[in-house]
Amino acid sequence: MRDPARARELERLGCEIRRGDVTDEASLRGAGEQIDVAYFLVHAMAGGAGYAERERSGAENFARMAKREGVARVVYLGGLGDERVSSHLRSRHETAMTLAANGPPLTYFRAAMVVGARSESYRTIRHLVKRLPVMIAPSWLRKATQPIGIDDVVEYLRRAPEVPESAGREVQIGGPDVLSYADMLDRMALAMGVRPRPKLPVPFITPWLSALWLGLITPVDTNVARPLVEGLTTETVVTDPSGAAAFGISPAPFDQTLRRALAEEHQMQAGADE
Fold it and tell me: Rounded to an integer, what is the distance from CA 82 to the centroid of its chain?
């Protein structure tokens, strides 16, 4: 995690905290000692231009450390979708390939939108519904996606060491609902107790203009918004459920994950106001 202060609760639970920088290989020395499974959950989009190279470099350093120090398995979470049409998804996939090529056997989870109170994709949708009485509707709003709740993603990650057949393979995960982004906006409105917003079709708006628009309307960092929008231009659905089947997890429906995220967000806000 970027802020060591957020690790204090883990220390109270008996966890040993070590600080390192995946882009500085020397700082990782010793991090994999006596570790069976290591999780690589590092993304670098918020750093702006050059994030793909930083992600690859960090993955290579981490993988080499894990292999050198005897880690048995690495677990990584990337994205669903055709990486050929999105630099964001391409970087996620290349990170996975770098981990697999340089480190221990990899469990490569791939997910679409993760629904949680701190998810940038979730926050984007919520703010669009909250702030706009009418929305422009670029063509990517019609693309199919398969969102999954954060609790279910964490459970997949947690169970990875218990599922030996997941080592060295891709595991596509998603919730039970396949929706368009327009459908998700409407479902968000209903979960928030407001009327679904009318949408004005603008089929020729580019991903760059969509990202600029999102940056103006929502609090999402523009360094994150543009790669996210590029990823929305391809369908992000599970095409091979076989890897996930071994985990025995039944992910929650989209509407339920929305209610959980909204409730958590209200709790966070109440705690901040005290």
Answer: 16
Q: How many residues does the chain have?
A: 274
Which residues have CB under 8 Å from 7's CB, separation 6+? Answer: 1, 15, 17
Alpha helices in 103-253, H assignment, sequence order: 120-131, 150-159, 181-192, 207-217, 222-232, 242-245
Element (H, E) at 172: strand 169-172
Are 256 and 149 in contact by the 8 Å Cβ rule? The answer is: yes
Q: What is the pLDDT of residues 40-58, one digit of tens each?
A: 998 876 666 778 899 999 9
Strand 144-145 relative to strand 179-180: parallel, antiparallel, unpaired? antiparallel
The ranges assigned to domains in the chain are 4-273
Per-residue pLDDT tens digits for 95-146: 999 999 999 999 999 999 999 998 888 888 888 888 888 887 777 788 899 9
Give residue for tokens 């700082």: 27
| The CATH classification of domain 4-273, taken from the options 3.40.50.720, 3.40.50.1970, 3.90.228.20, 3.20.20.10 | 3.40.50.720
- Give the Cα-Cα-Cα angle 267, 215, 188 (nearest 5 degrees): 45
Q: Strand 106-111 vs strand 144-145: parallel, antiparallel, or unpaired? A: unpaired
Q: Is 34 exposed, middle or buried (0-12, 13-18, 19+ CB in 10 A)?
A: exposed
Whole-angstrom Cα distance, residue 117 to residue 123? 7
Q: One-letter amino acid identity for 164?
A: P
